Amino acid sequence: MAPSFSQIPRSSRRRYFFVFFGIVAMSTIFFVRFRHDQNKTEYVLGRDVLLPQKTISMSTIQGSEPMSLEQEQAKRMAVFKDYCRRHQPNTVPVANETISRFIVNDKYKILYCFVPKTGTTTTKHVFYNLEHGTNTTTLFLGSKHLKFLSEYTDNEILRRLETYIKFIVVRDPLERLASSWKNKFMDIRGAMRYWFIEHYQSMLETIGDNEPGEKITYQDVNWKHIPFLAFIRAIARNQTRWMNPHWQPVYQLCSPCQVNWDYIAHTETLVEDFHLFFKKAGIVGRENIIPKMEERVGSRFYLEGFMKIPLEEIQRIGELYQSDYDMFGYSFQEDLDNLMKHVIKEKLHDN
Predict the structure, then answer these.
(1) CA 40, 46, 47 angle in degrees (round to 5)?
(2) How many angstroms separate the CA atoms of 220 and 199, rounded?
(3) Percent of residues, the chain, with pLDDT higher than 70
(4) How many C-beta neighbours within 10 Å does residue 268 have?
(5) How far apart are CA 164 and CA 271, in angstroms?
């Protein structure tokens, strides 16, 4: 089994620390070239890992000086448009699956393509409250409470895609994966949690049947808990068998390059993004429905979770979510750096 981030022998802690520190330092100096298996595009593994050369990077447009959210939004759009210009021209029609993911707000002429585990519940409530003039945060918003673009005629769909404000929320891929696992396999109570555990029991194949694990009983049936390692390994090794919208890459959900987006929000700055979006969309007097900033579960868990995952599996995840990293201005290298720093911090704390 490949070693995980946290598997450093205590007896060799000092030696491994210096070796590990050296690797981190050297990785910021040297570049390792490799070729993508599908399109043979050359990539650089360095400060912008898995980003094609000569692309616009979120960290290089205006240097490293602090920016306003308006400048940040301009950078996001520049990175996104640059990616789509080089990879996926928008002459391809929007996929039918994408049409069914757009929530329609006719009152303010907004389309929102929802991506699970990006602050979707919060965002749905914001657009529901905008449409109905309410201020609810507790209503369970099912399909009967929201209007979807797929409910309209072809002409009405086309008109809304051409004239409405298009809004999307995205999230760092590793953090989104961690949040998805914790929510669907750990936090949910009742039938829905057990549906996920039952439906994805086959993920345990990736770690072997002999691995010890927590057992869960539901309706007199025993099921094994799905560990984070099994979840990540399943997604990394089979992109179709175990895929689900809650952790499916954004580029497979919302046909990003086929839509002329007006605003790209990040889960990490969602509250601030809402304030700026309201301003740009001409929404006045409804700031009271914007939620307050709360700590994200995924942001707390993803470092602890991924430091126990073999590096080989994390690299595979990086390749699978490469397009999400590239088009939305996230950095797989920064995620790796954060994991490495977290491991070093934990090891020093153990001394």
Answers:
(1) 125
(2) 16
(3) 73
(4) 16
(5) 22
Classify the C-alpha dihedral 247-161-58-297 as positive or negative: negative
Which residues have CB under 8 Å from 343's CB, separation 6+?
A: 5, 6, 8, 20, 307
Q: What is the DSSP letter of 85?
A: H
* Per-residue confidence band for 299, with pLDDT thresholds at 50, 70 and 90: low
Tokens 């949040």 map to which residue?
179
CA proximity to 179, closest of 270, 115, 247, 273: 247
pLDDT in tens, 111-145: 999 999 999 999 999 999 999 999 988 888 877 88
DSSP 61: S
Q: Taking a C-beta distance cutoff of 8 angstroms, is the pair 269, 72 a contact?
A: yes
Is 0.90 topped by the overall pTM?
Answer: no
Structure tokens at 214: 């927590």
**CA–CA gap between residue 43 and residue 211 (Å, rounded):** 37
For the four alpha carbons of 303, 309, 310 and 316, in that order, the dihedral sign comes to negative
Q: Are 189 and 286 in contact (CB under 8 A)?
A: no
Closest among 251, 327, 305 to 57, alpha carbons compared: 327
Identify the residue whose tokens are 């995952």. Answer: 309
- Please name every residue paired with 221 in a beta bridge, in sequence order, or none if there are none: 218
Do residues 95 and 258 touch, judged by C-beta distance below 8 A? Answer: yes
Separation CA 172–CA 267 (nearest Å): 8
pLDDT tens for each residue of 317-328:
999 999 999 999
Q: CA-to-CA distance for 151 and 104, rounded, in angstroms?
A: 10
Angle of CA points 288, 294, 300, to nearest 5°:
165
Q: Where are the beta strands (DSSP E) in 230-325?
A: 263-266
- Residue 52 contacts residue 86 (beta carbons within 8 Å): yes
